Amino acid sequence: DADVTQTPRNRITKTGKRIMLECSQTKGHDRMYWYRQDPGLGLRLIYYSFDVKDINKGEISDGYSVSRQAQAKFSLSLESAIPNQTALYFCATSDSGKGFEQYFGPGTRLTVT
Amino acid sequence: EDQVTQSPEALRLQEGESSSLNCSYTVSGLRGLFWYRQDPGKGPEFLFTLYSAGEEKEKERLKATLTKKESFLHITAPKPEDSATYLCAVQAGTGGFKTIFGAGTRLFVKA
User: CA of B3 to nearest chain A CA: how many angstroms apart?
Assistant: First the structure.
């Protein structure tokens, strides 16, 4: 089984709809992250959480919100989706005791029409 | 401004033809430089962390090196299965948590 899982893997939604992307991990890591990837731009950090009670905005948090339901679960919400949020979304984890190297899930391809 | 630039954008090699990928960075207080491999339709896979200039790490046909301004990922005698996008990222030491990714180098290795 994969250490970091994301659901759904693919999603098509309409402008204005609320959508939630979910991430679960079995690595036992305390830190979790959400990134989006766009062609030619590289990965950009949306939100990160260093433990269950710690939530921080990243580089591009506008239009997004997150919830850390447990150490192993971190979800990303788009309150009112817009077309320029069409992208590949990745969840990642890291262990605070082992540096900043991150372990990524398989990604969610989101299309907003 | 903190920045990571990878070159070339794409690289086509014949099997066995060694080459290097470049990652240039400007960042306040480097806490680590990372290399990841990303296959199509998958998430990035961690390869190496480098912490200080002069450090080197090796894994199979890959060797990563670090200077004060750039990192190289050397690929020796590549095989078709090395075809992937290679991502470089830096961890900045100031301004809170900040990981900056480059746009990547797409590597194609032909048999």
Answer: 12
Confirm if B47 and B59 have CB atoms less than 8 A apart: yes
Q: Please choose, from the candidates A38, A101, A107, A14, the residue with its C-alpha nearest in 3D space to the C-alpha of residue B39.
A: A107
Burial of B21 (0-12, 13-18, 19+ CB in 10 A): buried
Give the pLDDT mean for A19-32.
96
Set of chain A residues whose Cβ sits within 8 Å of the Cβ of B29: none
* Contact (Cβ atoms closer than 8 angstroms) between residue A6 and residue A108: yes
DSSP state for residue B18 in the 8-state scheme: -
Residue-wise pLDDT tens digits, A72-97 = 999 999 999 999 999 999 999 999 88
- 3-state DSSP assignment of residue A9: coil
**Residues A47/A58, Cβ–Cβ less than 8 Å:** yes
Q: What is the predicted pLDDT for the residue at A1?
A: 58
**Is residue B22 within 8 Å of B66, Cβ to Cβ?**
no
What pLDDT score was predicted for residue A100?
85
Torsion angle of the four alpha carbons A81, B99, B36, A65, in this order, in degrees rounded to the nearest 10:
-20
pLDDT at A29: 95
| Cα–Cα dist B79/B107, whole Å | 11
Q: Report the mean per-residue pLDDT for chain A.
A: 95
Interface residue B95 vs chain A (CB under 8 A): no
Using a CB-CB cut-off of 8 Å, the residues of chain B touching A104 are: 36, 43-45
CA distance readout (Å), A87 to A31, A113, B15 = 23, 12, 33
